[in-house]
Amino acid sequence: MKRITKAIFPVAGLGTRFLPATKANPKEMLPIVDKPLIQYAVEEAVAAGVTELIFVTSSSKRAIEDHFDSNFELEATLEERGKQDLLDIVKGILPEGVSCAYIRQKSPQGLGHAVLCAKQLVMNEPFAVLLADDLIDGDKSCLQQMVDKFVETQSSIVAVQQIHRDETKKYGIVDVPSSTEIFSAIRGIVEKPDSEKAPSNLGVVGRYILTPRVFALLEQTNKGSGGEIQLTDAIAKLLFEEQVYAYQFTGKRYDCGTKLGYLEATIAYALKHPELAHDFKRTLQAFMHD
Question: In angstroms, rounded to a whole number, what is the distance separating the alpha carbons of residues 134 and 28?
Answer without folding.
Answer: 10
